[in-house]
Design goal:
By secondary structure, the protein is of the alpha/beta class. It has three domains: 3-165, 3-Layer(aba) Sandwich (Rossmann fold), CATH 3.40.50.1390; 191-330, Alpha-Beta Complex (Hect, E3 ligase catalytic domain fold), CATH 3.90.1750.20; 391-554, no CATH class. The protein is built from 18 helices and 18 strands. Helix 13 crosses helix 16. It is elongated and about 120 Å long. The chain starts with a strand and ends in a 5-residue tail after the last helix.
Length: 559
């Protein structure tokens, strides 16, 4: 019988052929767990491996180090197998030199990985690998067996089984999607799973009221950023935080801090989601394959859409109006092959007219439209080659991306430091100046009444002057209100999910311009006569606000 002992109590003996520091690797897949496959249960695997170890009587010494268990984890991705990774780490640390598993399917993602570990990694790290069933393997007692044709054949069979199981599960889910059954782990914000039917949705009244408000505010003319500020300032929990507050184990991979807030992207997703009119929309994303657990976007014509599956929160008319407004708000349109990359973005820096596109001997150029189509005396060519233009715009965007990344890091440090209440001198001066201007115009408005009464101006003149002063007063009050809002934001801090920061950060690895990138990031591109360009990027006001926030909160005299 094998001499199995605790590692701390064993003393090596010169008479032993080999000392094996043993680890069990045990995995129960999601499919096993879903099907309650007792033969592959954790307990069953543990008993099989323990019994095998206790039966060893070959003169070698076996010291059981411990077991490494991945319970309910996919076998097709190493990243999800936390304890498998821990096993490899402990092997490299010299804690383990023998691994025992029930079968090869419990151990490796696919046949390629099986070949790598059995043929390279384990031998290179002096590890004995033992698999008990299907195709038994013992790389120490029978090293040639691990290299026999039977082992890779078994690997192929295991891989085919994984593929077949994955395909079967996908088909089952697709059938449920076709019927309009909800199969996600979490319901969309505003809904919750029906306690009596996990595949049905019912309204979550608390969250649904916030969804209604978002749609109403947007229809009233509020921007997405304004809605974000209103929700955050009112203390309304964002979807991720709300789910956690209800005890759900929800994780949003895009949230990197412990205090998530509303962001424009959240508002955008809610406004576009047909689920709020009572339609079940599923299958918008999918895993690339059973081997590659990377999520990819699915074309809209492949989505599973079933109408009227649950109670709506928003009526269809309001939803349709919002979709039209969003098209105008984002300045996006359905992709058309006839649209060129820079269509609508180029302006002559001198006359302000658009640029026209021309192809000469295989090269694309842009010219001032006034010069080319109207009058060669009214303006000059302002010629620029397409590839030079593209490189210049891409460079400008990259520079702003670098700024956004740097700003995010600085803002994060400021926000995690003890709060500093600071005021902007510029904003205070602007507010004071506008209030002084308002006071002056108000006095003028009051004086013209007496002028009319005294007969110095006619009633018609009085009426026109009064209306003009009222327009000025309204405009100044709006400016003052905006300045006070900006000042409050400045004093309350800047979130790292600020639209400028979040939008530009996501293009950290940008290497190519697309029309979508231009629509999202660029306001206008001016072309000068010498071939230089200036790129006006979006979120300019947000950029200036963040820059000022950083300056105020990092200045040594800030208070």
């Amino acid at each position: 019988m094998a001499r199995v002992a605790n590692r701390q109590t064993i003393t090596k003996s010169a008479t032993k052929n080999k000392v094996c520091y043993v680890a069990f690797y045990i995995r129960l897949s999601r499919e096993d767990k879903r099907g309650k496959d007792e033969s592959e249960s954790i307990t069953n695997q543990r008993l099989i491996l323990t019994d095998f170890l206790e039966q060893q009587d070959d003169g070698d010494e076996y010291i059981f180090v411990g077991e490494y268990v991945d319970d309910g984890v996919s076998g097709t991705t190493d990243e999800e197998r936390e304890n498998f990774q821990r096993l490899l780490s402990d092997i490299q640390k010299g804690k383990i030199n023998c691994v025992i598993v029930k079968n090869l399917a419990r151990s490796f993602r696919n046949n390629g990985d099986q070949s790598y570990y059995l043929g390279d990694w384990f031998p290179r790290n002096d590890v004995r690998f033992i698999s008990l069933y299907q195709q038994p393997v013992d790389t120490y007692k029978d090293p040639q067996n691990a290299q026999s044709i039977a082992v890779p054949v078994q690997g192929v069979l295991n891989e085919e089984h994984a593929r077949g199981t994955s395909e079967s599960i996908r088909k089952t889910f697709d059938k449920k999607r076709e019927k309009g059954l909800h199969i996600g782990s979490f319901a969309a914000y505003g809904y919750m799973k029906d306690p009596e039917d996990k595949n049905a949705l019912v309204i979550d009244e608390e969250a649904a009221e916030n969804v209604k408000s978002i749609f109403t505010w947007f229809l009233e003319g509020m921007s997405k950023n304004a809605i974000v500020r209103k929700l955050n300032s009112s203390g309304v929990l964002c979807p991720a935080a709300y789910k956690k507050s209800k005890g759900m184990k929800y994780q949003n991979p895009s949230v990197t801090n412990g205090n998530p807030l509303w962001a424009a992207i959240s508002i955008n997703n809610i406004l576009k989601n047909r689920i709020y009119v009572g339609d079940m929309v599923q299958g918008r994303y999918r895993i690339k394959s059973y081997k590659i657990h990377v999520q990819e976007t699915v074309p809209e014509d492949e989505w599973f859409i079933v109408e009227n599956t649950h109670e709506p929160i928003i009526n269809r008319e309001d939803f349709a109006r919002v979709q039209e407004l969003m098209k105008k708000d984002t300045r996006t349109a359905p992709q058309q092959n006839s649209l060129y990359l820079f269509s609508g973005f180029l302006r002559c820096a001198d006359c302000g007219k658009g640029m026209t596109r021309s192809k000469v001997r295989g090269n694309v150029y842009y010219y001032c439209r006034t010069y080319k189509d109207q009058s060669k005396t009214a303006c000059t060519k302002h010629t620029i080659r397409h590839n030079h233009l593209e490189q210049g715009v891409l460079y400008a965007i990259r520079q702003q991306v670098y700024v956004a990344i740097a700003f995010s890091e600085i803002v994060s440090r400021i926000n995690t430091a003890p709060l500093q209440k600071s005021q902007s001198i510029r904003l205070n001066e602007l507010i004071a100046a506008k209030e002084k201007e308002l006071s002056k115009i108000t006095r003028y408005q009051q004086s013209i009444y007496q002028d009319w009464k005294d007969g110095e101006i006619s009633h018609k003149q009085y009426r026109h002057m009064k209306e003009d002063y009222e327009r000025q007063i309204e405009a100044i009050n709006e400016v003052i209100s905006n300045l006070h809002e900006e000042k409050a934001e400045l004093e309350n801090g800047v979130d790292t999910e600020n639209p400028f920061l979040a939008t530009f950060r996501k293009y950290e690895n940008i290497d190519k311009l697309t029309r979508e990138v231009l629509i999202e990031l660029v306001e206008q591109i001016k072309v000068y006569d010498n071939g230089n360009i200036s790129v006006s990027l979006k979120f300019a006001n947000e950029y200036r606000r963040i820059a000022e926030y950083i300056e105020v909160n990092t200045h040594q005299n800030a208070v």
